[in-house]
Amino acid sequence: FTFSFRRETDSHNLNSEPSPIKGKTRIQHIKNILVSKFVMPEFNGDGVNGHDQEETATVANGNGVNLESDSTASKSASLKSTAAAINGHSATSNGGDSETAVAVAKDANAEDEDSASKEKEFQFSVSFVPPSGESFSMHVSSQELVQEIHQILTDREDCCHRTCFSLSLAGKQLDNFVELKNVPELAEGCSIRIVEEMYNVKEAKSHLRHIQDILRSTEPIDAYLGREQMSLSFVNAVTQNSLLSPRPPGSVTSIGGIGGGNGSDKSRQDKNGGGNSGGANSSGANSSSGGGANSGASGGGAKSPFEPPDYALPGSHDLPVMPLHPLSLTGKPPICVSNGGLSFSQWHPPPPNRKLHGDFIYVCFHSLEDKVFHITGSPRGFYLNRCTETVFDPRPSQPLLLFHSLVDLCRHLSNGFKRNWDLLLKVRAAKHPIERAPAPYQVYSWLSPILEQTRDSLAKEEWAGGRLGWEEALPGQTREWNEELQCTKELPAKLLANRVIRERASFKANSDLVAAASRAAVAVLDGHVPAINPVDPPTQRMYIWNNLFLSLGYDVKGHYADIGGDSAALAATSADLRGVRAVRNLDHHQLHCLGTVLVDYRGVRVTVQSIVPGLLDKDQEQAVIHGSVDFGKTIVTDEKFSELLQSLHRVLMSKPHSVLDESDKPRLFHTSVECKGIRGSDGRLYFLDLLRLFPPDVAFLTDSKDLPLTPSNEELRLPAPFPLQHPHRLGTLRPELLQAFAEARGQLPLFNTDVTLTRLSVRFSSDYASTELQSDVDLLYEASNFLLAHQIPLLIHELATHSTAPADGPALARAFHSHGVNLRYLGFFINRLQTDLSAQKQQQTPNSPAESAAERASVYLFPLAIQQLLVRSIKHVWRRLMAGVEATNLATAVCHLLNCMFSQAPVPQPALFSDELSRVRRKSKKKASPSASSHGNAYLFDQGLAFVQHNSTSFWGCIIEELTNYYHVSSNFEFVNKSIGSLEEFETACSRSLARLYGLNADEQKLASLSKYSLLRSVCVTLGIQLALREYSFDSTKHLTFREDDIVSLFPVVKCVHPKASDAYQLFHIGQQRISAGQLTEGQELICESLNLLTSVYGPVHSDTASCQRLLGRLSYLLGDYGMALQQQQKAVIISEKVFGIDSAQAAADYAHLGLYAFALGQFDNALALMYRCRYLSVLCHGELHPETPTIDSNIGLMLHAVEDLDRSLQYLTSALRINTLLYGPRSLKSALSHHLIARTHSCKADFRAALQAEKECYTIYRERLGEENERTKESFDCITHLTRQAVVFEKRVRDLQAGKKAGGLCPLQIQTPNLSNLLETLNLVNGIFFIQLSSCDLDKIRAHLASIADLQQPEGQAAVAAAADDSSATAAAASAAAVEGEGEDNSAALKQEVLD
């Protein structure tokens, strides 16, 4: 069809010529084009029939969460349909009925229809009238509180300088805690007045703090200092804030005559038409001169905007770290005040006589004109007084300058402040709303620039006053953390709206607890909090701070002396946290757990818990009603508490055992005796000390005290070398292993609530230390054998076949835990890798490339596992050496230990005091005390000076000892050698091990070697070290790598329980199932509903909201809505950077998808900038040798091909071929695709000889793997024929030219430069997405085939309908697309062939 578009306001035609539009184009696509091309605001599509309008509104509702005034409108507008989808899931997921989940649930939720209709939400527009300035309109929701509107107004740029005001409607003041729907006078179009209120002392201080926060809101100071849950994000700095900004046509270099606009259908070109522009570009596609395509930026002249930086080029190993923080791209923010800032005056606080005149605070304002103004805060506002730096005269100045807002007064006093304040608000408004939102938990950066120290009297007053961190709404009070946690748990949860409120309150209380616990642990170890038992040794002291109980991770009074001492005490805290997580996931309304947070800071583990009510008021023995307080000597039980514990058996797969109580009578006991039940003074029952809640791991138990019985037969005994000696005997089996073990024995899923206890035959004893049943011990050994013989080999198989490809240490740990494998098996893991490789080599025949490819498939895994082993061993040594280090020696100790780890130069004994103290001591005439080196080791450990005795050799000796004794790494590895004394020697030994196991040459060894910056990053993140942002030299043999000034700070590393939004997760999984079944629209709606619920519970910044945004972006990309995909993926990138860190593997993966979507929109400069940063972050995380690297290089190569930089394109494509060959083998399909891409690039350069050679390699692989009749094989053969013909023509032309003949009579060279549509198809192919047109019959066949192989292990090459694979979620799919990724197993080629056919 052909349409003309006319703006309604001025009847102006938007398009000079009628625009052709396909009949299947969605209304939303047309709207996106008009919005982006003509810079129009969002509008409603009038004139659309009812069905299409409803569908468009449904899709648009979930495209993102608006953080402005109508932010809560999308959160609960569809709670009824959300509940319907959840309740209807069980009726549709297994039966195969064609009815949707929403339709089924309307019947299931009929009884709740009345209550849901009462809570129906609606929106309306309201006009706000400020005291000064123009009025403005804003959309509000009926379910919003007046307080939420107050907060929104405070965040607006035109009202952000106001804090003390109220809202008035029809002359009546609105209550802040009333919902708008309960205000009777509120209606569409009404006017609400913003009324300035009188200040008090609290409001005046809050106003000053708010203005200070705005003044530094454009700088990442809080993010670097780790304050206010702020964290870094640089995606908009990388793209210069141009991702979503409209671009004029032709503003970006493009191919095929396609501009760089934001139109979402720009990239949808007619495949047969070559982009409807004839493909006419400067490369000379139809040239007869034989010059070929221009290589673009590789020539001389000005630097191309697409040229990659040096650190993003292939072969970059030791990367610089300065590009990690592109602060130069963010620009310098406007400065409104001079160095003195806006802070308390030296005359603050007011004297008593001035308080009687209403003086609240005295403020000093240092203007840009180098003037100092003294201001008084009073009930009516702020006015200029007559004080100077030397004279105190608080009387108002003449004439009186009184303003209600401090900003208005500063604007009147300083023209520089007035000018830069407006610029500051513009810069602040340009930032993405999510960029300005805080994260739920504090994320620290391991690198930080040296920040300039400025005067901040507010921070000084807070520090001097010992501010606890309570909310401003509760001045002078501390929070009752336990009461908050338990009250949120007891909130009603019958309806979905109730559950959302309950989960939101629970998450808010938990995140606040984690922040308070972090501050508490830092305050305790920094010496700000007195101990409640100060006469005890420092390791046994306990603390109470802000209604939180804190204890150190040491063996108090020898309680763990028999099972490992301090090592057991440290492990007990982690085991207890896992038990708390299991009980809280059970969500029993009468069984309560304490809020528990583990904090590692300065090498010390601090356990922070909420306090049981009444426990400190009476003896512990009187409060305990279940368990034992003397390690089993005296046991008490309670019938009511025992009934509650019976519900745990379904989750923990445990069973009760018999014990003798205090009267020597046998009683049925449901847990280990160490687990305690306490009745608090509030009447609640608390369950704590859950370190032995899960069964023990017999693979690391060598003492008969822990397990008095042995297995009944030899078949159940553990294989050699198990059981292994371990530093402690508190190792337990993970709940994931218990679930996998139960499913392997034919049981139902573990967390299925329909499973009755009588149907569960897998029941472990709840206390193996006192068990007398041989069957219990046999079952425990059977579970351990299942772990060793099945789960670990399965984990190795999935990692080696790249079904799961972890990109860094935390991802590897998650892969271990998902299979139920603890990280103490990490040494056995690489030992098993070595054994499997040796067995494969013995079975390998001389001509067996397939086995050789499988042999090298796990080569990326080896350095990743070694680095994780190394980092964890360093953490163990770090804890021992940093214990007890006093504050004056912290920077010295950290710097010395880092130099022992990384420096090649000799590390001398460090000076224990600063230079200032040393000079004072030299001036003293007293006799110097003996040096620390003259004392023995016991003295050094007692004084916190154990680090002094270490140099590089002794420190690495401790690391090698840890690898041997803790992780039991085989001595066959070259890096397990006590003679290793530096990181360089360790790397060399690792390279020899890689060469021996995988047969790598020198270049391949360098590719697989450890990256020093990657190791430094992992060490700093794990230990909590923040270094100065500068380049570090690791190769110097004369100068140490680190200086004391490089140690910027130490930050806490936190472990806690993360509450889950259960309904949102269920909706997310239902949506994934719908997408996998080809029901894209319904699946997208469910994912949007899940996003709304997640935002309601967590807020906009959370890892789960990033998963929803990521999946919605992929769906939009599959549906052709590239503009919306870009918006959603940009949100996912910002959230990933703020939640996981700017250098995380997840952020790198999100950058890759964002670059792909930007390329689809024609933004080639942004796409390449994003891909360059993606490659930089990926190599920084895991090095170049990783399955993700060739995909990234192929993407960059194709994008450089698009901008005609063919030389650099070949460089990246050749790198992708090299890594694909190393990981998958020279005869893999990935290698074939790389050969094809290289051949196409060579042909565009008119290098037909090289192109023909590369395409022949591609054809040979396709013929061997797919057969002669496969479509890919035929296409490759046709390409060879074409290239051969062109090569002959080219050779003849060159010979004729050399002979001086005219080149007439020959056919012109046909150099086919691909257009954007063809390049985008190739990019989809590289990223694992094939768009295949399928009929209903074909789709049913594929579904049936996929269902038939569902019980088999999923190979890497498994096909899914329209897959948009998510690394952290299940596969998303569409009916019009099929994704085939990787090589997979033996049946993958046949499966690919079937899908393609």
UniProtKB/TrEMBL annotation:
This protein's UniProt keywords: Cytoplasm
Ranges of Basic and acidic residues composition bias in the record: 1-11
GO MF annotations, alphabetized: mRNA binding
Domain Clu, first and last residues per copy: 459-701
Ranges of biased composition (kind: Gly residues): 289-302
Cytoplasm in keyword set: yes
GO terms for cellular component: cytoplasm
Annotated region described as Disordered, given as residue ranges: 1-22, 243-314, 1376-1397
Biased composition (Low complexity): 279-288
Domain of life: Eukaryota
Keyword Cytoplasm among record annotations: yes
Swiss-Prot/TrEMBL GO biological process terms: intracellular distribution of mitochondria
SUPFAM superfamilies membership: Hypothetical protein c14orf129, hspc210 (SSF103107), TPR-like (SSF48452)
Name of this chain's protein: Clu domain-containing protein
Species in which this protein is naturally found: Macrostomum lignano
